[in-house]
Amino acid sequence: MDKKTYILGIESSCDDTSAAVVTDGGLLLSNVIASQKVHEEYGGVVPELASRAHQQNIVPVVQTAIKRAGIDKSELSAIAFTRGPGLLGSLLVGTSFAKGMSLGLRIPIVDVNHLHGHVLSHFVRQNPDDRVPEFPYLCLLISGGNSQIVMVRGYNDMEILGRTIDDAAGEAFDKCAKTMGLPYPGGPHIDRLAAEGNPKAFKFSKPHIPGLDYSFSGLKTSFLYTLRDALKTDPEFIEKNKADLAASLQATIIDILLDKLSKAVDATGVRTVAIGGGVSANSGVRAAVDRFCRERGIHAFIPERAFTTDNAAMVAIAGYFKYLDRDFCRYDETPYARVTI
Ligand code: KG4
């Protein structure tokens, strides 16, 4: 009988320490995530504190992932790790750990582009008969740092068709939420408030830029000015209207996202659409993409919420495909803070 493949994935690009194990066919055996609470009081991720917390978390997180997978570390075939993009100090923890462990176990390491992980997260199977996308598909990758439409032709063959020229969709959520006095990250708070509000209560400006690129900075300014002007006459304006403000903001972001996605589908004729990244956890975005795909009669891949934020399952799956190609990483390769798809 052929030896089974077991890939350990390690994710440490920002403020989540995560480890996961996938086996043949992309079947997920475990996915452990330790989130860092330490940043909450600072209103954003503090890089120094993030790397320190990764150092504390990485051993127990990896041990738990291997244990939950029901295997021994000696059975691992390779270790995949996020090499970038992300915070350099955080990435160094995962990268160094992966190198050390692979040397100890005498197995290869596979470097993973975090963005590829998000795009390929749809190939993680929790059950052997789970549906996965067929190539080519379009992936709307929306997070705190990215808003892009990616043409995915193969596991390692991707092209960005459109990207944001300024802020990312997640930044638009977070910055507008901050203007409303909501805690960081504001996206989930807007999502929760929007469920109670009227999406047509307020109108905010939408960008008019050609092609498939996005822009969210104009919306942010328009939101800010609406609040500033209204607060002059009513200091309670935000408190009284927070659900309507959140619903209208979310509806505008969704309109902007769907407008270019629809153009990309028309321009390419591709019949499968997937979403990924932190903002793909948004209830409104998920419902809108689902509706859009139903109306067009095209396949939609909407990830489980656990796979929208940073997680090692997506690193393990991206690493699994590179492992099958024998595309290994050298030990003198270093992490990179910035990289595109
Ligand atoms: O992919 P991700 O976890 O990491 C970064 O790119 O940093 O994305 C984080 C982003 C944040 O901007 C956060 O506000 C947003 O995803 N986000 C959401 C929701 N959950 C997370 N935005 C809107 N609605 C949500 N439910």
CATH architecture of the largest domain: 2-Layer Sandwich
Ligand types: 5'-O-[(R)-(carboxyoxy)(hydroxy)phosphoryl]adenosine
E-strand count: 10
Output the number of helix runs: 9
Order of H and E elements: EEEHEHEHEEEHHHHEHEH
Distance between the termini: 37 Å
Helical content (DSSP H or I, runs of 4+): 40-55%
Largest sheet: 5 strands, mixed
Strand order of the largest sheet: 3-2-1-4-5
Using the CA coordinates, give the radius of gyration.
21 Å
At CATH level 3, the topology of the largest domain is Nucleotidyltransferase, domain 5
The CATH superfamily label of the largest domain reads: ATPase, nucleotide binding domain
At the first level of CATH, what is the class of the largest domain? Alpha Beta
Mean pLDDT: 96
Count of the separate structural domains: 2
Please name the defining characteristics of this protein.
341 residues; alpha/beta; Nucleotidyltransferase, domain 5; five-stranded mixed sheet; 9 helices; 10 strands; 19% strand; globular; binds 5'-O-[(R)-(carboxyoxy)(hydroxy)phosphoryl]adenosine
3D architecture notes:
The protein is α/β, with parallel strands linked by helices and 341 residues long. The chain folds into two domains: 6-130 and 307-324, ATPase, nucleotide binding domain (Nucleotidyltransferase, domain 5, 2-Layer Sandwich); 137-304, ATPase, nucleotide binding domain (Nucleotidyltransferase, domain 5), CATH 3.30.420. The chain contains nine helices and ten strands. It has helices at residues 47-68, 88-105, 114-120, 169-179, 187-194, 217-233, 237-268, 283-296, 312-324; strands at 6-11, 16-23, 27-35, 78-84, 109-113, 137-142, 147-154, 157-163, 272-276, 299-301. It is globular, with a radius of gyration of 21 Å.
